[in-house]
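hey m, so remember when u said the tokens were messed up on ur end? i reran from scratch. heres the input so u can diff it against urs
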Amino acid sequence: MIDPDQDSLGGLPNKRQVAASFSRAAGSYDSVAALQRQVGQRLLAALPASINPARWLDLGCGTGYFSRVLAERFPASAGLALDIAEGMLQHARPLGGAQQFIAGDAEQLPLRDGTCDLLFSSLALQWCANFPAVLSEARRVLRPGGVLAFSSLCVGTLQELRDSWQAVDGFVHVNRFRRFEDYQRVCGDSTLTLLSLHVTPQTLHFPDVRSLTHELKALGAHNLNPGRPGGLTGRARMLALFNAYEQFRQPQGLPATYQVVYGVLQKEIS
């Protein structure tokens, strides 16, 4: 189901496609995940200073990198790690960090009510079409006073690549994301208390376009849009893309800007 806050997106990728793409990328993900680690560290720094969870959930755990970080930060806590991509879970399980690794969907968590004190989710929820359902599920599984801390992506992410493709063939070759205003509205309308919500641009630089597209594929985050153009990308079109992207070149290289949303919400203390 596509939530009303997605009307500007034209739909998000099918969950099976997302799971399959990230499963295939499990072996290569960590080698190109510098941005993901930086964002996750910033999200950790945004946690309330007083938080000391008895049980935490790494929601969209991927390769389990932050499951292991959370286990180190909260050594007396029990940890759960959940992801929709079974390939990621198979990669993460032997590395430890969480007591349980669970296949599941953030929009319909396979957990009992009131089982967690912290839900930590870094760069996963942008793939969820029904964001109100994510917040509703978070509230359900959190104990009173529990915290949901998430990072996600919004409109403007990879705008340089989007604009370059637009100049080449007019098709959308870049994943769609919801607007920051939609995050504001949905978080504001939820029954969780909004502690903080902001967007921070973060720009990576690449020597050439192939380096950027290689990284996106290695992350499993290449174009997953429904209705994306099929077939091989012709040599002439790729050359046109390279030329179009050159207009954005900076002294550091070709920029790829991510618009990163950080949010912290809390369940009321009854």
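this time it looks ok to me. The beta strands are 55-59, 78-83, 100-103, 116-122, 142-153, 193-206, 254-266. if urs says something different then somethings off w ur setup not the seq
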